[in-house]
Amino acid sequence: MSYSRMNASAATLTKNRTEGAVSPFSGMCVTCVDGCVGMCEIGKSAYRGHETIYPQPFGIITTASEKNYPVDYSHFSIMGTAVGAHGIAPDSDLAIFPNVKLETKVGRGDGIKLKLPFVIPGIGSTDVAKNNWDGLAIGSALAGTILTIGENVVGMDENSVIEDGRIVSTVDLARRVRLFQDWQRDGYGAIVVQANVEDTRLGVQEYAVNELGVEVVELKWGQGAKDIGGEVKIKSLEKAQMLKKRGYVVLPDPENPAVIKAFQKGSFKEFERHSRVGMVELESFLQRVEELRRAGAKYVFLKTGAYRPADLARAVKFASLAKIDMLTVDGAGGGTGMSPWRMMNEWGVPVVELHSLLYRYCRKLADKGEYVPDIALAGGFTLEDQIYKGLALGAPFVKLIGMARSPIAAAMVGKTIGKRIGDGKIPVYVERFGNTVEEIFVTASGLKDELGESAFNDVPPGALGLYTYYERLAQGLKQLMCGSRKFALDYISRDDLAALTREAADISGLNYVMDIDMEEADKILEI
What we know:
Strand content: 5-15%
Radius of gyration: 24 Å
Mean pLDDT: 95
Largest sheet: 8 strands, parallel, barrel
Helix content: 25-40%
Number of helices: 22
């Protein structure tokens, strides 16, 4: 069985000439013909070189791996039951799915309260994030969930004022933070400011805490989509030069006269901005956490990616020692605004394997009486069945599920529909539901009643898209939980899942579907 598609993808706008006859081990056409203009990745690389490394077109897409991993969350099935109820009286008039409670909290002390167990784990300096921020921020705030401002936002902002290497004023970060804060309701949810190497040097998190009133910060070791730093494309020579002066790695060199001439001639149209990779070390990590707490951060999170198992163990142990409030673990395959395409497909530990290792490591610390932070899982989650499975696989440590590509998709769809309504060009597929915001978005009337007409009219359609998507996830999750007779998130457990293959059982430590309940079933049959 082949797990990778090797030499052609919609992500890189490439295809094989002989699509029905492709070598399974190289990905090349079975017959590579002299005279072909180069439609595959090899061919396109012959004339566009390094540009072909990245998914295209930058700025209007998000991307995830198309690798067919040997095991994924579809290899588990949710176990329902006809007996009893947890978290509510076993009464058919009470044990109905609308009564399932999805509110939760994360973090030490009073904790951060959430209406739904969702977090967007890091939307940073890519254009697709910036262009959809209104929808993401306002939608997350209205839903009572967590939204994370990802890396490099301050460094990318032309209006940032930097003195002696430290940020003293920034327009973009302030706008992103305040959009969430202005729409936050009853203290639910949180806006989080993440930092990589460059952000830390600029003092971004201290600025966010002291000047913008941010209570939650996140240290970033990496993500599931790639094992190097953040990347974006830059269409402006002047901005590329500015970013190099701010300390970023910019390719090709925007200060090289030959490069400037080639750019002005149109030989290439985009520069690449790259971030540095961090170097994890225990003492410096503990020191940085303490610095952030002294600076006023109420909660400190850590996000790590799909690195080798020893690095996952470091994340769990270091987070335990530092009393981190929440650890997010992002599996390979993930999603991104820009990552090297081959890297996204071919590096790292996939989600089921990584999350299963995470459970083992957390269990080991818990059994020794050591502190285990609240956990969020990320890596391709999109709908309620996957969310339930993630919560169950990592129970009782996993409190939240992280999603990025699907919330962005919901916000983009909402924004697009709003624009089409304004232009009077609603697609037939959508127009069958109506031709106004209140007719098309099923949550609009209820939200208008909650907010009042004036406030509701200020909600952008992108935010309605995200809010309505979350509403669907909430009802779907409640229905699955009701079927398992679990009426609050704390009651979800690992035995709510069964592995559908022996391999999935071996990886996860869960029971194979034919073995689950074996002893109990035998006892029942002996009655």
